[in-house]
Structures are given as C-alpha cells and as structure tokens.
Design brief:
It is found in: Cell membrane. With 465 residues, the chain is mainly alpha-helical. The protein contains 27 helices and no strands. 74% of the residues lie in helices and 0% in strands.
Length: 465
C-alpha cells in the first residue's frame, strides 16, 4: 500500500519520517549529549527550544491553545453529565439496575469501535473542521435524547451515536494541538488537558448527581447539548483554519486517500515501530490498575458502606493523578521524566497488592491515591507518543491507542467482575496488581533502550517554521 504520509512509500518508523532533524547517536555511557550536559543546567529542552520550566506559562499564553482547552473542558463536562443523566433517565423508565448499568457500559463501545474506524478523519480532513462538525452532530443527537417519552431502544441508539463523534473530536484535538504548540509547550498543554479531565472527574463525582436532581434528567441532557454548541463556537472563533495534513503531504496529482487506506497505514505505523508500540502498551496498562475503580460499589458493599464510600474509591486515582501529573510535568526536567515512565508504570500497580491485607476504607483510598500519582506517567507517555508520530498521522495514531485504552479498561473491569463471582474481591485486585506489575516490567526493559533519542525526536518539530 502507498504511504499516506508521502503518497509513494511504505510507512516507516517515525525516526525516518520526521525531517530534517536526525536522531543523534547515543554515546557509550548510554546517555545523549544533552542528558550528559544536563537539561536542568541548560534550562531548555533537549533541542534548545522552550524552557521546560516555563512550559505551563508559555502554553497558556497561546490564544489558540486556550480555545482548545476551554472547548475540551466544556465537552468533558457535557460527557460526564450526559452519561449520568441518561443512566438516570433509563432507571426512571425501567426501574432496572441492569438497564442502567448497561447504559453506562454502552458509553465504552463507541470509543472501542470508532477509534480504529473514525480517528483517521482527523488526518484526512482539516482538523478544525472535524472538531466543529463533531460538536454540532453531538449537539443535535443529544438534544434528541432529551425528548420525553422516547422508547428505550431509541435512547440507547441515540446515546451510542452521540458518543461516536467524540472519537474524531479527541483525535483532531490532540493532533491540532501539536500544530499549535510543539516540544515542551505541547507536553505542558497535554498535561493541562489531562489535569482538567481529572479535576472534572472529581467535581463531577461531587456535584453531578446534585445537578441532575436540581434540573431533572431531561433538562440536564438538553443543557449538555448546549455545551457542545458552546464548544463549537469557541473553536470557530478562537482557532484558525488549517489545511488537512495528508492533503499537504500528498504529492500533486495523486488522488485523495481513502479512510481505510489511512487506517491500515496508521496501524502499521503504530504497531510496527518499537517506540510507538511500547508507549501505546504503557497506556493500556490502565486496564489492570483501574480495576478497583470498576469494582468501587462491590468494594463499598463489602465494607458495609454506601455510595459515598464508592465515590471515594472512584475519586482516589483522580486525586493522585492531579498531584502526580503536576509534579511530573512541572517540577521534573524532560530527561529524568522520560526515564521515569517505566518505573512509574511499575509503581502504578504495586499499591494494589495492599488489598491482600484486607485494608479499611481510608487505606484503600490512600493506596489508590498513590497508584494514581504513579499512573501520571500517562501524561508524559501520551505527549511523547503524539509528538513522535509524523504530523500527518497523529490523529489516527492517537485514536488507535485511545480505543485500545478504552477496550483494556472495559475488558479489565468485566473480567474482574466475572472473577469476583468465584473468588474474593481482594484476590481479584491482587491478581490485577500482579498482572499490571509484570506487564510494566516487561515494557520497562525495552523502554530502557528505546527512550534514548526520544527527547530529540519529540522536539524535532519545535524548531520547524
């Protein structure tokens, strides 16, 4: 198949795709020249670009990033309230906990199915346009869900279809942000986006139910639709139009690539390059250490506690991620940060071994906070992955890994629930901890060889015009 990046060659590893920068050879001591000199002393990234210490301030000063950030925050609020409000609607209509649970489970499927199929739209078409159309389509579909008296099957279909546009939206947002800011500014921007998501989760756990109670479920769903309209307006006003990335890189005279061609080529790119494959698998480890999140209600019941205890268990990883993510991306320089991806991935699952001791609630929450703080390696791995992918394939690459992440979390929770029918919850979580730790160790070994030169590859585009 022709290379969607060039229109003529097979897809190669990113090292050969990013030009004109070359990856320097690693010296005999195993460290790059920049690492030996110390990025801390230089006060700059490995390519001599923006100062990593001012990354947060630099990226917030960019108007287009602020627009993307606000649009993401609005969409995230809409997503959380939509899931909560629709599950309430279904429960009110059916009085069935199984139907309400199925409704929440249904929200995973669009990401798993749509990730490989729709993420390529963010590379085939102008990314700003993809974001705008996704928001408008979501607004229309969600507004339809708010119509009283809909049959249950139609509510489920509309919910599924309303979440599907989130796939190209997220892929286009991540890829477009890499066009707006590069290097350490992208790392800081990606961290801000992730921190916003985790803070939003904490706020949602506290006030989400109160909002649905105050407004009623139908009105809440309709308000969700308005958040997507507001997001589209912000992007339309605050982000300038850019051409489609593949359209720019495809040679003149060649026809537009089809979506399936881009998807097949992108999969080969992600899974054929050891660096991208390893970073993607690091992301999927969340399927192990997020098991307690999925078992929050059974864990609370095991302690003879109610919904408040379940909420604390679910909030634990997010509290840790906010703290750990800020420290990792704001206080630690790029080279040590890159080396820490493997050790932190191992440490993310280790606290779950504490379930062998049948801990009380406060210890459970503390263990999950520590796990979440260590799992903030995902902030760095996410940004590293996107920046290491050639610019015209970033949307699809991001979508493929995001789909795998959703699948890993969903399958992990389902398997844990099934296993809990046979053995105790403590044993289930301990097994997940062991699997996550062993998986992280298996990935850390090759990463210890692969991360050399990754910083230079990440920042190769920062000096580009």
């Amino acid at each position: 198949m022709g290379n969607p990046h060039t229109g003529s060659r097979d897809i190669g590893p990113p090292r050969e795709s990013v030009e004109p920068a070359e990856i320097p050879e690693t010296p005999q001591n195993g460290y790059t020249d920049q690492e030996n000199q110390g990025t801390e002393a230089a006060g700059q990234d490995a390519n001599g670009g923006s100062d990593w210490r001012t990354g947060y301030r630099d990226v917030i000063a960019v108007g287009e990033f602020r627009a993307l950030w606000l649009a993401h925050a609005l969409s995230m609020v809409g997503n959380y309230l939509l899931n909560l409000a629709v599950s309430v609607l279904v429960f009110q209509q059916t009085e069935s906990a199984l139907a309400a649970g199925f409704t929440l489970g249904l929200t995973f499927l669009p990401h798993v199915i749509g990730g490989p199929l729709l993420s390529g739209l963010a590379d085939l078409f102008p990314r700003r346009r993809v974001i705008l159309i996704s928001d408008v389509v979501r607004a229309v579909l969600v507004a339809m869900i708010s119509i009283p008296g809909l049959p249950l099957w139609l509510t489920w279909i509309l919910l599924f279809c309303s979440i599907l546009p989130m796939v190209p939206f997220s892929a286009a947002r991540a890829a477009l942000m890499s066009e707006i800011v590069q290097g350490e500014r992208y790392v800081a921007g990606s961290a801000i986006i992730n921190l916003t998501s985790h803070v939003g989760t904490l706020v949602g756990l506290v006030v989400g139910g109160a909002i649905v109670t105050l407004l009623d479920a139908h009105t809440t769903v309709l308000c969700n639709a308005l958040t997507y309209v507001a997001s589209a307006i912000i992007i339309f006003v605050g982000v300038r139009a850019r051409p489609a990335p593949i359209q720019e890189s495809t040679s003149e005279g060649s026809g537009r690539l089809r979506l399936w061609e881009v998807t097949a080529g992108g999969a080969r790119l992600v899974f054929g390059d050891p660096r991208l494959r390893t970073l993607g698998l690091f992301a999927w480890l969340a399927g192990f250490y997020m098991v307690p999140y999925g078992l929050a209600n059974p864990l609370a019941a095991q302690l003879d506690r109610g919904a408040a205890a379940a909420g604390l268990i679910m909030a634990g990883p997010a509290m840790g991620a906010v703290l750990g993510g800020f420290v990792l991306t704001r206080l630690i320089s790029p080279a040590p940060r890159m080396r820490l991806i493997g050790p932190l991935a191992i440490a993310a699952s280790l606290p779950l071994l504490g379930w062998l001791a049948q801990p009380p609630l406060w210890v459970m929450v503390a263990l999950l906070v520590v796990s979440g703080a260590c799992a903030s390696y995902q902030f760095v791995a996410n940004a590293t992955f996107v920046l290491c992918v050639p610019p015209d394939g970033r949307g699809l690459a991001f979508g493929l890994v995001a789909a795998g992440l959703q699948a890993a979390q969903g399958v992990g929770i389902v398997l844990a629930g099934l296993l809990a029918e046979v053995v105790s919850l403590n044993i289930v979580i301990t097994i997940a901890a062991l699997c996550g730790t062993l998986g992280a160790v298996a990935l850390t070994l090759p990463w210890s060889r692969l991360y050399h030169g990754t910083i230079e590859l990440m920042y190769a585009s920062e000096g580009a015009p």
